[in-house]
C-alpha cells in the first residue's frame, strides 16, 4: 500500500548495507532497492497519483513530521550496531555546528550521508 512506501526509506537500507553487510551481498540490496522504486512507480501509476499518499494529505503530513526523528534513530542504530560488531570502527568526526544550525531542521537526506 501507499503507507508502506511512505514509511520506507531505501537510503536507510543502503546505509545499513554499507555498514553492516558483507560487500558480496551489496548487489542484492541494490536489486531490492531497484525493485522498491519500480514497484512504487507502478503503484503511483495505478493510483493515478504523482506522489505517495496524495489522496490522504492528513496522513502524509503526519508521516512527514515523524520522518526526521525516525531517520535519526535509524542512522544512530546502524552506527551503534557497527560499533558493537567492530569495536575498532571509528566514526569520522565532523566539525561542531553552530547553535543556529543545530536548531534548524535537517532533511532526512542530510542525516543519511556517510
UniProtKB/TrEMBL annotation:
SUPFAM superfamilies reported for this sequence: Phosphoenolpyruvate/pyruvate domain
Protein name (Swiss-Prot/TrEMBL): Phosphoenolpyruvate carboxylase
Keyword Nuclease assigned: no
Compositionally biased tracts (Basic and acidic residues): 97-114
Stretches assigned to coiled coil: none
Protein keywords: Pyruvate
BP-aspect Gene Ontology terms: carbon fixation; leaf development; tricarboxylic acid cycle
Family matches, as Pfam families: PEPcase
Any single GO CC term annotated in Swiss-Prot or TrEMBL for this entry: cytosol
Residue ranges, annotated region (Disordered): 95-114
GO molecular function, one term: phosphoenolpyruvate carboxylase activity
Amino acid at each position: 500500500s501507499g503507507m508502506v512506501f511512505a514509511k520506507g526509506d531505501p537510503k536507510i537500507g543502503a546505509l545499513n548495507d554499507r555498514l553492516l553487510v558483507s560487500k558480496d551481498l551489496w548487489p542484492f540490496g541494490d536489486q531490492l532497492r531497484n525493485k522498491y522504486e519500480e514497484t512504487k512507480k507502478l503503484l503511483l501509476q495505478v493510483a493515478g497519483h504523482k506522489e505517495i499518499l496524495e489522496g490522504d494529505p492528513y496522513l502524509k503530513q503526519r508521516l512527514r513530521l515523524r520522518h526526521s526523528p525516525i531517520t535519526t534513530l535509524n542512522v544512530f542504530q546502524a552506527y551503534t550496531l557497527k560499533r558493537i560488531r567492530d569495536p575498532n570502527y571509528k566514526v569520522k568526526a565532523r566539525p561542531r555546528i553552530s547553535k543556529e544550525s543545530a536548531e534548524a531542521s535537517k532533511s532526512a537526506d542530510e542525516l543519511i550521508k556517510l
